[in-house]
Structures are given as C-alpha cells and as structure tokens.
Amino acid sequence: MIARYRRTQDPRAREQAVHCYMPLARRLASRYHRGQEPLDDLLQVAYLGLVKAVDRFDPAHGTRFSSFAIPTISGELRRHFRDTSWTLHVPRGVQEAALEMTKASAELAHQLRRPPTVRELAEATGLELEQIAEAMQARAAQDTTSLDQPRAGGGDGDTTIAEVIGNEDDRLDLIEHRVTVAPLIRALPAREREILFMRFARDMTQSEIAERVGCSQMQVSRLLRRAIARLSQVSDEPQAGPQRRSRATVRPRDGAS
C-alpha cells in the first residue's frame, strides 16, 4: 500500500496505509503514557507522526516501513512532551533524559518490586550518574503550582497557598534604615564608628567598650551621644521619621554595665 501510494499518490492508498499501521501508533502512545497526560492526546500525536512517516517513507531505500515509522512517531511524542508538559524551560537534552529515566524507572520498579536506585537507572538508560541526577531534579520541577491556588485540605476554600506560606517580615523596615544610615556612619570618625559597632552590633555594655578602647565609661557615653547626634544632623528631612524611630531603639544607656 505504501509503495502504491508513493507510486501513484492516491489518497485512498495513503489512508489505507495509515489505518493499517494505527495499532503500531497506539502501542507507542501507550508506552509514553504516564497517567498525567490524557491518552487520547497522545494517540492524536502518534497518529500525526504516523501520517508523516507514510508521507516521508521511500521504499527504494530497502528498509521496512516499521523501522522508519517507530522513530518518527516516537520523535513526535517526545516533541509533544517537550513543548507542552514542561512548565519551566529545561534544555532539550535534559528533557529527553528525564523521559528515558521515567520510562526506565517504571519498568525497573515493575521488575524489581521496588524503586530503582540511581545506579540501576544509569545502567538501564546508558546515561551517566550526573545526567540521571540532573534529570531527576528537572523531573521534580516539571510541574508548578500557582500561589493563588486554594490550599488542599485547609477546610476553608478561600485560603490560598500564598496566604499560608507568606507572612509580613517585620525586619523590612531595617533595610530602609540600613540603606539610609550606612553612608552616614561611614562619614563618622573611625573611633565613633568602632564604638557604635561594639555597642549596637556586638551588644557590648559601655563598661566593656571603655575597657576595650582604653577610656572611661563616661567618655564612651559621650562619644555615643555625639555620634548619634551627628547622624541626626546630616540625615535628610524626608528620612527624619525613620531616623527618630531608629534613635529610639539605639539610645545609649548612661552608666550601663
């Protein structure tokens, strides 16, 4: 039939050839079916690959049609998974390795009655251990979930995943304060910067700071007040509100020990 179609280009011969080899296409579609993708969709892709194989096959090459059709149909199925089933962009080689690994994993699990190891998957597929590990990571990231999706098992249908995993970070204000204060601190004398660091970053008492820098506790208190006053004077007016809040939290304690 295929030879007659190639010779005469008769559409009826083409249709007969396609119908004759549809069982082959169905077997290949079933082989790639993993439960996530509807089988009907895979059958349509396999039939399309079969039609392409009928149109491209040349009997003059001396090969059997099935030997030509199987890689053609399989290529269409792999292309379908590559183009439609991956939410994230993954290199083609990793996608194909993931498909081979998934297929081999199902076969080995059936034979061994347990999940196969990475080394067993590598031996079954001919891939390197690193390729198997990369394919497993890509396979795990193949599907994504929207943060707006209702939370499963939450009881309240209006609760989304984002509401469960997200919360307000009380430290966000500190980012603004740090960006504002950092250049001002760099403008202070080195001794005052050191004392500020020991007091507020290391949480050292004024007595400990005085012992470290070799001066009295009263001098440390005075240097702290002067440094904070300088920061207040050089800060811009729009930032006065955040600075006042910061000063309220870092006011030195005279006589602390």
Task: Characterise the protein shown here.
The protein has 257 residues and is an all-alpha fold. The protein folds into 3 domains: 1-85, Orthogonal Bundle (Rna Polymerase Sigma Factor, Chain: A), CATH 1.10.1740.10; 87-144, Arc Repressor Mutant, subunit A (Orthogonal Bundle); 172-250, Winged helix-like DNA-binding domain superfamily/Winged helix DNA-binding domain (Arc Repressor Mutant, subunit A), CATH 1.10.10.10. 68% of the residues lie in helices and 0% in strands. The chain is built from 14 helices and no strands. The protein has helices at residues 2-8, 11-20, 22-32, 39-56, 65-84, 92-112, 118-125, 129-140, 161-165, 172-186, 190-201, 206-213, 217-234, 240-250. Helix 3 packs parallel to helix 5 (65-84). The longest helix is centred in the middle third of the chain and has 21 residues, at 92-112. It is rod-shaped, with a radius of gyration of 35 Å. The termini are far apart. The relative contact order is 0.06.
